[in-house]
Design a protein that fits this description.
7-stranded mixed sheet
Length: about 110
Amino acid sequence: QVYLVESGGGLVQPGGSLRLSCAAPRTITSVFNSNTLAWYRQGSGKQREFVASATLRSTDYADSVKGRFTISRDNAKKKVYLQMNSLKPEDTAIYYCNLGDSWGQGTQVTVSS
């Protein structure tokens, strides 16, 4: 199973920005490159939901984050990032990195004044 480590969460005011990172240090590069990387989130009392994904050629976003969030991947470093701008209180959640059937431990993002 792939080992994923997220970082970059924290407390931010509405309208602020955060950048999440997810590393897959033990993953073979060819496996990393051949898979879709994705971010999901789970708010308190809610189901886990899709946020964004990236293949080598394309990206996809949930409607709720389009225009505010940007996913990117660095295949050489085996990392995926989620740049989150114009954050809203409803973005508060634990954010999880996903590769195949593997998940990271999650990183908390709290948007509050």
